[in-house]
Amino acid sequence: MRRTPLKAMPFPMAFGFSFGADKIFAAISFRTTYTIKMLNKVISTVALSLTIAVAPNSFAKEVFNYGTFALGTLINVQTKNDTKEEADYCYKEALDEVNRLEDILSAYIDSSDVSKINKGRGTWVKINPETAQLLKLSLTMAADTAGAFDPTIGALVKDWSVDQPEHRIPKADEIHADIAKVDWKKIEVKEENGEYFAKIGDDQTITLGGIAKGYILDKVAELTTKKGCKDVLLSFGGDITGTGTNGKDKPWMIGIQYPGAKTGQYFATLPLDNESVQTSGDYERFFIQDGVKYHHIISPVTGKPVPATLSSVTIIGSTSAPADALCTALFVMGWDGAQEYLKKHPHVRAVLVNGDKKRVAATEAIKDILTVVVPTLEVQTIIPEKQETVK
Ligand code: FAD
Ligand code: MG
């Protein structure tokens, strides 16, 4: 339909990997709808991606590396195999699954379930099981975060169009009108005779941009494992899932991008033991007008990009999708609000970087695996609230 291989080319060095081995392969392909101008734009977006896979000291020969464009960002697949043929197979399986799910879940594709639900204007719309599953998880995450994460924020996201050429500062009355449309409780999902349907409020627009990348990571990791690709590191615009081990037979090592610093410069590292790392930040997608920065994470309460009390939120989780949504929600809550949430949810492994990028707050649950490598950073631990003991 639209995926034309471009040509094999070296993976962009700006991404932050150090390649020494000639066994590393890169295949770049992209949607035919992208012009070369768009391609440059995508590369610059990716160059600011949030979390970086840290290469082992030297890649063992059997780790193969692939890059492509999808989901509006750069995706990278590293796979450890005995032969290039096996690695090609693993990459193809991963990419096919990305493309399949993108077609269903993207708000940027007219025929996707998300677009159909939006065009349904309050009527029941038939959807794929995956969309139903993700909508249900979105509702759980919206409830858990008291609506800080809310997929019905679509109209406001469109108003600002931060990541699009037509980005602008919407008028106050537009914002006011579209805040009124935000209410995740109006999303309904049902199953009838093995088929799935969804319905939203007749004036609502949904976007799954804050959770679908994580969900697709989960599904791709699940599929590649099932297909026998045991050691895979997937990075979709800096959101990462690792299965198995790296070229040194050790857990994949991840660096967390230092917000605002050069791409590839990380402030902390952690090992990834069959887990995922998600990051939300204000420095990847934004525009500046009259000296003011407007980023892509919108408060459902004010209808505006949330104030810059945080630069990034990173969560490590056993799965990606809930962590993806929670990152976005914690970013909305801000430096203080996020810490309040984390004190009440001590199992969450999270790292926050504050607005001026001088302070880091990490939960006790992540402390043991997190290594902060920027000595000037002030690091504090988020101590869980004491649980009331029931007598
Ligand atoms: P996150 O913090 O995880 O999410 C931020 C995004 O969530 C915002 O961009 C907005 O869409 C939404 N959001 C903002 N505030 C809230 C809130 N309070 N509650 C809930 N959601 C909120 N981008 C393109 O430019 N072109 C494409 O073709 C394209 N296709 C995509 C297809 C898919 C399937 C997906 C999932 C994304 C696509 N994107 C595309 C979007 C792009 O990849 C986004 O950058 C990404 O979804 C945002 O993820 P993040 O990890 O940067 O930020
Ligand atoms: Mg994310």
Written overview of the protein:
The protein is α+β, with helices and mostly antiparallel strands. The protein has helices at 36-46, 84-105, 113-120, 129-144, 154-160, 172-179, 212-226, 321-344, 364-367; strands at residues 3-7, 28-31, 51-54, 63-70, 73-80, 125-127, 188-192, 195-199, 232-236, 239-243, 252-257, 266-272, 276-281, 286-289, 292-295, 310-317, 349-354, 359-363, 371-372, 378-382. Strands 4-5-9-10-13-16-17-18-20 form a 9-stranded mixed β-sheet, with helices on both faces. The chain has a 4-stranded antiparallel β-sheet with strand order 3-11-12-19, with no helix packed on it. The longest helix has 24 residues, at 321-344. The termini are far apart. The model is unreliable at 1-50 (pLDDT under 50). It binds flavin-adenine dinucleotide and magnesium ion. Flavin-adenine dinucleotide (FAD) is lined by residues 71-73, 102, 105-106, 108, 149-151, 153, 157, 163, 207, 209-210, 212-213, 237, 239, 280, 284-285, 296-298, 300, 324, 327-328, 332. Magnesium ion (MG) binds at residues 213, 239, 278, 280, 324, 327.
